[in-house]
Every structure is written in structure tokens, then in C-alpha cells.
């Protein structure tokens, strides 16, 4: 494959460190944006998302937000 290939590259893997935090943040983001089946309110879900986000690095947050956007959740 050449340097300027048209072939689309697959989505990058999550950062190797702290995959559990990334998975949890992604799950909380989907719950907050997509609605919670347990019936929790919007503010509680938002607060859980931002508390989990505070524990993540910039690269992890970027990965999660890109994944949410790719799957149709609002930014």
C-alpha cells in the first residue's frame, strides 16, 4: 500500500492503558445520550458521565467522544 492510498483505515483501538475506564465512560455516554432504561433522570446520568470523564486522559476522552459520534450520539 502506497503512502497516499485511498484505502480507508479502520478506527483506532482504544488507548492500551485503563481499558475499563474507557469502556465505562463509553457506556455512561450512551446511557446519558440515549436515555436510561432504569428511568434515572438526565442530570444524574450527566453527572455520572462527567465524574467518570474526570478520571480519563485526553486521549481516552477523545476516543470515547469519537466513538459516540460515529454511532450517532450527539457530541
Automatic annotation (TrEMBL):
Name of the protein in its database record: Uncharacterized protein
Amino acid at each position: 500500500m502506497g503512502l497516499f492510498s485511498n484505502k480507508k483505515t479502520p478506527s483506532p483501538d482504544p488507548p492500551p492503558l485503563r481499558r475499563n475506564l474507557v469502556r465505562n465512560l463509553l457506556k455512561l455516554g450512551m446511557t446519558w445520550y440515549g436515555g436510561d432504561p432504569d428511568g434515572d433522570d438526565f442530570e444524574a446520568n450527566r453527572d455520572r458521565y462527567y465524574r467518570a470523564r474526570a478520571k480519563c486522559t485526553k486521549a481516552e476522552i477523545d476516543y470515547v467522544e469519537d466513538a459516540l459520534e460515529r454511532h450517532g450520539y450527539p457530541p
